[in-house]
């Protein structure tokens, strides 16, 4: 299977003052998407994601991973800013987590967290 890789960049995007109710992936970046689990190898090129802001976000997640920044080894995400985020589980008694791979930036008052590589 050949994975088609986009080229270019996404930069200077702000997600602000959002409320999520029972959402599967409240905060997600996935540069390693594959429509068939395990069938795609990571590509050396792709879309560069930088200077993304997540601010004043709250709500509930139906998935265990509420913040999932799955960035490429080849074009890592950088300049990510997370501020005033509070995501909890939609399922009583369950906890949510954050997962960041190859993503760097800064976090302030972020739950769940921290997960970004600080710079």
UniProtKB/TrEMBL annotation:
It is an enzyme of class 3 (hydrolase). Its EC number is 3.2.1.67. It comes from the Eukaryota. One of its GO terms (molecular function) is galacturan 1,4-alpha-galacturonidase activity. It holds the Pfam family Glyco_hydro_28. Keywords: Cell wall, Cell wall biogenesis/degradation, Glycosidase, Hydrolase, Secreted. It is found in: Secreted, Cell wall. PANTHER family: PTHR31375. This is Galacturonan 1,4-alpha-galacturonidase.
